[in-house]
Amino acid sequence: MKISIQGIPGSFHHQVALNCFGEDAEILGFRTFEEAAKCVSKGECEFGILAIENSIAGAILPNYELIDRYNLTIKDEYYLPISHNLMCLKGQQIDDITEVRSHPMALLQCKKFFEAYPNIKLIDDVDTASVARRIKDEKLKNVAAIASTTAAKIYRLEILAGDIQTVKNNFTRFIILQKPILDLGLVQPNKASIKVTVNNEKGILAKLLSLISSSGLDLSKIQSIPVIDKPWEYAFFIDLQFENYQAYQSVIQDIKSDFGDVKIFGEYENRK
Ligand SMILES: O=C(O)C(=O)C[C@]1(C(=O)O)C=C[C@@H](O)C=C1
């Protein structure tokens, strides 16, 4: 089975692929989230994995847009505890480090740690593990990576400081994507991710939220993103949790008839 991710062995996406699909899966690593999503939509792999939000740094907004644009379906979700570590070539001390490179989401999660090191420049890079690999391959001095302990082991780097994320209890939520398929109805879903493009009317969002609340559904996430061809208009990405599938379906019907367009990205099992 082929799985697309952004990143290389030692990255958090790679860890999620192993945890969800096991050692036998063929993991195809790409430089960008877009290439990983495109691989699924072209049918060149069965599943793709995308980080969608982190408990410290928040949502990865461009990834919502990718699911939408490539017409992908959310099959499942996975919450990975994230511990970040500062690592460099053996023998280097923290005072030797002038530059730290990592994935932008990883840098955001560790911002507080670097307040004590104002001379260190924080630079966005492709993914956590590929920086670790580059430091090793190019024997880069004065540069450190932020990555997992697995990456430190694979690329034989020394950890200068462990668990450096701002809050120890740190999670990233990943979604498992596939091409839209016919629902076989094997598992009764209790969570759904939808996009609602509301008509721009006064008070409409408040009414939408009241409908969801009065129907007994639990709104676990709401995220607005711009409608790109209509400046200053917004669509809402909404995650709903429910015990009663029929109640959920009836809310979807009510939203369609009274609020605007609904696109269902996926109905799946809540893994939180
Ligand atoms: O760079 C990596 O190792 C990734 O898997 C990317 C990523 C992300 O996209 O948020 C995954 C989990 C962590 O939140 C930090 C980075």
Give keywords.
D-Maltodextrin-Binding Protein, domain 2; elongated; Alpha-Beta Plaits; 6-stranded mixed sheet; 272 residues; 8 helices; 5-stranded mixed sheet; alpha/beta; 34% strand; binds prephenic acid
Q: Provide the CATH superfamily of the largest domain.
A: Periplasmic binding protein-like II
Strand content: 25-35%
Number of domains: 3
CATH topology of the largest domain: D-Maltodextrin-Binding Protein, domain 2
Bound molecules: prephenic acid
Distance between the termini: 26 Å
Helices and strands: which structural class? alpha/beta
Tertiary shape? elongated
What fraction, in percent, of the residue positions are helical? 25-40%
Rg over CA atoms, rounded to whole Å, is: 21 Å
Average of pLDDT: 95
List the helices and strands and how they pair.
Blueprint: E1 2-6, H1 12-21, E2 26-30, H2 33-41, E3 47-54, E4 58-59, H3 61-69, E5 73-81, E6 85-88, E7 99-102, H4 104-109, E8 121-124, H5 128-137, E9 143-147, H6 149-154, E10 158-161, E11 171-178, E12 191-198, H7 204-214, E13 218-226, E14 234-241, H8 245-258, E15 260-268
Parallel strand pairs: 1-2, 1-3, 7-8, 7-9
Antiparallel strand pairs: 3-4, 3-11, 5-11, 6-9, 6-10, 12-14, 12-15, 13-14
The chain binds prephenic acid.
Prephenic acid binds at residues 7, 11-13, 51, 54, 60, 82, 103, 105-106, 127-129, 172.
